[in-house]
Structure formats: structure tokens, C-alpha cells
Write a structure and sequence with these properties.
The chain is of the alpha/beta class. The chain folds into two domains: 32-123 and 251-321, Bordetella uptake gene, domain 1 (D-Maltodextrin-Binding Protein, domain 2, 3-Layer(aba) Sandwich); 126-225, D-Maltodextrin-Binding Protein, domain 2, CATH 3.40.190.10. Helices cover 44% and strands 19% of the residues. The chain contains eleven helices and eleven strands. The chain has helices spanning 3-26, 43-59, 74-82, 95-103, 139-146, 163-175, 188-196, 207-215, 263-277, 280-288, 301-321, and strands spanning 32-36, 63-67, 89-91, 115-124, 126-131, 153-157, 180-184, 202-206, 219-225, 251-258, 291-293. Strand 1, helix 2 and strand 2 form a beta-alpha-beta unit. Helix 1 runs parallel beside helix 9 (263-277), helix 2 crosses helix 9 and helix 4 (95-103) packs across helix 11. It is globular.
């Protein structure tokens, strides 16, 4: 490489850095779009609404929620990945974006290469629950029951590639139960209804939604699928406490921007996220909804990137091992 070419490249890099710094100084000068990969009313949409006002105040511009459903969140992720890397389009993904990288073929984006993580938001506990008249009363008895000769356990889930589906597959895999039937539904509501009606045997269910039903004796709870116990069911152990460390699974949310978004802009959005997570009203809403915010030291781009990397491997391995394909 000639001296003149090397000098030109250095000058170009300096000018790009200067341009990014200048844009960050005036950012944001107009509303910021937060793409939610699911229709209104779901968990991810709810999280976006919880942090929306506080982040808007911190940014000095309105954070506008745009719901883009379809293909397990992949349509929204594709749209966000193709957006200009200027900080005016951000994405709030969850577990499905990690699973989708393996499950969906011919995607036009790569979750690691085409996004710049901003920070982690929250996790939400799930319960491994059974129909009310299921004979086993604890996990030891449940595993024995599932392994009985001729038994075929029906596991309900809210759709192929969902957290509920993949958690159910991994639970059966880690418990060493091979004779199961995964029963798909169009959403968590229908799956729960059939579990309550006894049409299926068990399912991974939201701890918040299933908690009152468990206390009322309408469902049986066997363990928490998560790293920590759920405050609404304090006596229910986690899968990890019962010796199943691989089943300490978190249903999480984070924020990401298109790759190439200048770091000063990422830092401004991260500061707005931190402002929201420290807001007393936000914390109260999370607590009432049974959701656990990540600790402050994990609200960083680096922590989000590390979690995404580990989740891509975890769910990629599960999907490949069980030959799960998008439908």
C-alpha cells in the first residue's frame, strides 16, 4: 500500500469518526422508533410500553412504538437490521431472535453481525406446570411418571420456535424423556386453556399468569424455569435447585440498534434505558408484573452482546438436535 493511499484511508476514518461524533451531539433531533416484533398485547409489547415514557423524557424526543409482527419476530428484525444506523430505529428482541437464526433458513441478517447491542432489560420467570389432575406431586414423581412404559406426554406450547416450545423441548431432553408429543397452539392463551381443560398434560407457562391458577388448584406446579425463584410462588424451587442446571432458562428482553450505529449514539440510548430502569414507577410495574430487571451492571452493550452470543449457541444446539423447523 502506498503512503498516499494509507494517508487517504486514515483521513477517511478520521472524517467518519468526526461525523459520528457530530451527529451524536445533536441526537436525537426527532422521534425515535422502537420496533416491537409482535402485535400489541403481548409480553414484548408490554415491556416496550413500560419503558417508553421514561426513555422519551431522557432522550428529549418521543420514543414511538411500532408493532411489526410475523415469522416469529424475524420480519421485525429484518426491518430493523436494514434501517439506517443513525439511532432513529431500535429493536426490542427477546429469546426468539436467537432461536430464529438457526430455525429460519435464508435470513437476510445475522443477529450478531448486523446489530449493535444497547443493553439488557429484564427476565421473566416461567413455571413448568401440569393439568390439575396429573398424578405426580413433585418433579421426581413427574419424571418417573413421564418415563412409564407406554406413556406419551402431551406438552402444549404457543407456537413453533417460541420460548414455551423450545423450553418444553429442552425440558424433555434434559429429563431424558423421549416419548412426548409437542402440541402447538396459536398463542399462549389457547395453550393455557387446553391445559386447564386437561386436553394436554403439561406446559411451560408464564409465572405471573399461572400463579393464581396454581394457588387455586387449577394447575399443578413442578418447578420454576429460571435462575431465581418467583416471588409469587416462593416455595416453588427452580429447576437448577432440583439438579437440572441446564434448565435455568430466562425469557429475556434487550435493546439493539442496526450495526454501524455510532458508539456515542448507542451510549445515549443506553443512558436513556438506564434512566428508565432506575425509574421508581418502572421498577414498581416490573415488580407487579413478576418481571426481574437485570442488575445495573448488566444494562451495558457488552452484557447484552455476551447474552446474545450464549443464547444463539444454546437454542441453536437445541433446534439442530431436535430438527426443529419453522412452520
Amino acid at each position: 500500500m502506498t503512503f498516499q493511499r494509507a494517508l487517504a484511508l486514515i483521513l477517511l476514518a478520521v472524517s467518519l469518526l468526526a461525523g459520528g461524533a457530530a451527529s451524536a451531539q445533536t441526537y436525537p433531533s426527532r422521534p425515535v422508533t422502537l420496533i416491537v416484533p409482535y402485535p400489541p398485547g403481548g409480553a414484548t409489547d408490554a415491556i416496550s410500553r413500560i419503558i417508553q415514557d421514561s426513555m422519551s423524557k431522557s432522550l428529549g424526543q418521543q420514543l414511538v412504538v411500532e408493532n411489526v409482527g410475523g415469522a416469529g419476530g424475524m420480519i421485525a428484525a429484518t426491518k430493523a437490521a436494514r434501517a439506517a444506523p443513525d439511532g432513529y430505529t431500535i429493536l426490542i428482541p427477546q429469546v426468539a431472535v436467537a432461536a430464529g437464526m438457526t430455525m429460519y433458513k435464508n435470513l437476510s441478517f445475522d443477529a450478531e453481525k448486523d446489530f449493535a447491542p444497547i443493553g439488557l432489560i429484564n427476565t421473566a420467570a416461567s413455571v413448568w406446570a401440569g393439568r390439575a389432575d396429573l398424578p405426580p406431586n413433585n418433579m421426581t414423581e413427574l419424571v418417573r411418571w413421564m418415563k412409564e412404559p407406554g406413556r406419551n406426554t402431551k406438552i402444549a406450547h404457543p407456537g413453533v420456535g417460541s420460548f414455551g416450545h423450545l423450553a418444553g423441548v429442552l425440558v424433555a431432553q434434559e429429563l431424558g424423556v423421549s416419548s412426548v408429543t409437542q402440541v402447538p397452539y396459536r398463542g399462549a392463551g389457547p395453550a393455557l386453556n387446553d391445559l386447564l381443560a386437561g386436553q394436554v398434560d403439561m406446559s411451560s407457562q408464564s409465572a405471573v399468569q399461572s400463579g393464581p391458577l396454581i394457588k387455586a388448584g387449577k394447575l399443578k406446579a413442578y418447578a420454576i424455569i429460571g435462575r431465581t425463584r418467583f416471588a409469587g410462588l416462593p416455595d416453588l424451587p427452580t429447576m437448577g435447585e432440583l439438579g437440572h442446571k441446564k434448565l435455568e432458562l430466562d425469557f429475556w428482553h434487550m435493546l439493539m440498534a442496526p450495526a454501524g450505529t455510532p458508539r456515542p449514539i448507542i451510549d445515549k440510548v443506553n443512558a436513556a434505558l438506564r434512566h428508565a430502569m432506575a425509574d421508581d414507577r418502572v421498577k414498581k410495574t416490573f415488580a407487579e408484573g413478576g418481571m426481574d430487571p437485570f442488575p445495573p451492571d448488566q444494562h451495558t452493550p457488552e452484557a447484552a452482546a455476551a447474552l446474545l452470543k450464549s443464547e444463539l449457541k444454546l437454542w441453536g444446539d437445541v433446534i439442530r438436535a431436535n430438527n426443529i423447523q419453522a412452520q
